[in-house]
Amino acid sequence: MKVLVTVKEVANVADDFEIEGLTIPEQFLEYDLNEWDDYAVEAAVQIAEDRDEDVEVVAVTVGPERSEETVRMALAKGVDRAVRVWDDTLAEAALVGPTAMARVLAAVAEAEDPDLVLSGVQAADDGFGATGVALAEHLEYAWAAVVNDLELDDETASVRRELEGGVEELTSVPLPAVLTIQTGINDPRYASLRGIRQAQRKELDVRTLADLGLDPAVLDDDLTLTGLARPESESDATLFEGSAADTADDLETVLRDAGVSAE
Amino acid sequence: MSDGDVLAVAEHRRGELRPVSYELIAAGRDLAADLGGDLHVAVIGGDVDSFAERVNRAGADVVHTVDEGEEFNHDVYAAATTALFEAVDPSVLLLPNSVNGLDYAPAVATRLSIPLVSDAVDLTVADDLVVTRETYGSKVETTVEATTPAAVTIRDAEWPSVEDPGDATVEPFTVDIDAPSIRSTVRGFEEVGAGDVDIGEAEFIVSVGRGIDEEANLELVEELADALDATLAASRPIVDNGWLPKNRQVGQSGAVVTPKVYLALGISGAVQHVAGMKGAETIIAVNTDPDAPIFDIADYGVVGDLFEVVPELIERFES
Ligand SMILES: Cc1cc2nc3c(=O)[nH]c(=O)nc-3n(C[C@H](O)[C@H](O)[C@H](O)COP(=O)(O)OP(=O)(O)OC[C@H]3O[C@@H](n4cnc5c(N)ncnc54)[C@H](O)[C@@H]3O)c2cc1C
Questions:
Q1: CB neighbours of B86 closer than 8 A, spacing ≥ 6?
Q2: C-alpha distance from A53 to closest chain B C-alpha (Å)
Q3: Ligand 1 binding pocket includes B204 (Cβ within 6 Å)
Q4: Which fold has domain B199-318?
Q5: Cβ of A238 and B299 within 8 Å?
């Protein structure tokens, strides 16, 4: 069995970030493995550990050289090898929408031919929440989105989909399938020192769009990034300033006025 | 060529239309007016006739009923929506950015080879369709232009709910769905998250988020909740980590709470969290980041470190 996990290095903006044109300068960005993908990696590694047969876990990412740090973390946690897709066309794209990104990932998936693909529900930075299901459609695989419980046999994935309001949907899909993994589905491990050492020796292939047989035009998804701004504050909050003691005094007044500790 | 029409697909679950259905009509009729076309609304599955009556609200020109199945099944929805799109030929396909919306919208856009922009909070028409969305944990507002036809999913509660009755014509729509294309089987539903407390009933809530950093620090906020005689609740990561049980989670996938006071400690205010607590009478936030979106909905705030403010508060309320 082969499991493919899609991972993304996401950017968080620092507390005092600035925007220049259509970008946020590098010094205001902090990079990390996408939270949702961390759970997807754990789910994949657990499948490899729990099943009797041999399971190969392959990670795929689309990102610059810097993102290898993130990919190595996935390798350190038990992923067997990784593929990183990057070239000038990708580097120059201001925005790659979810269906175009899925097309790129699909090219890797077609070459790998996995039984199961695990993606995160969404990426913390762009937040499209759409790449996994678009990938399934490109591959003509079955799929399930927002999965917080997973049982696997040779032919079927039996999952729970986490709907709104504390309701879960119990669904089965035949393999091969793409599942988008929700946080909380498991308890992601920390990489061990041994794992980190081993990760340095694991295979991490770099591929260009051309290597994957893709025309640069696959990135033309009819979407154009036209604006990046700090949202105008809608806040009409009364902000208390001063020392912790001063602000606690102010909060005490608000809380008592609202009836806290009234007796 | 598309002629400015908009096609919106309503959402229902277990016999009830979900509120976003009426918000889709608001978003759709504005767009259709700007584009000079009609608003088509579709209801797929369930009691389609009664759903059709209910979504027949001001602004809808045609309601299409697709009598296929009872509950949401993404294979049925994807097939029906694709067929409707081909029949109506709209400029914009509007779907909800719900858990189920995200379970079929990307497949439909891919199948139709049209661009998809998810989680829209605003939509306008210039030469192209201009979509505003939030990125980087709502700290950045991003504008994306899509050529039409395009698919867009809209965020919950960003558009008003259309309440006035409409005079749309209702048209049954038949789709040929071949059995093998239905690959997913929905086996049922389960309510989760019940337990010792019902935070939905609480009068005062102290809620803790990832700013608490470590499980051991939870003691501090428990102490505060005790001193205030308040119920302890949390954002999702605290529950995902197993630090508090699921029934303490506030938000889209947890509980909806409406207390007199909601004190948010180290919570950024992600949209899925806010969905569960925006109805609180008084919202107070303590957060080190002045740009945290929680301050947008707070009535009172302290830009500061919860580890400094909370002990001071405990002191003032300890009996
Ligand atoms: C389908 C789906 C459903 C979801 N459902 C829910 C849901 O039901 N409920 C929910 O909560 N989330 C839900 N989420 C997750 C949501 O998107 C956010 O990831 C989550 O709400 C973030 O929690 P947080 O605010 O505690 O953490 P973060 O966003 O990490 O914020 C932590 C905050 O703490 C502040 N902070 C750090 N240190 C301190 C300090 N010492 N003092 C004061 N402040 C500090 C930081 O400035 C930051 O603003 C869902 C997501 C998806 C995709």
A1: B112
A2: 25
A3: no
A4: Rossmann fold (3.40.50)
A5: yes
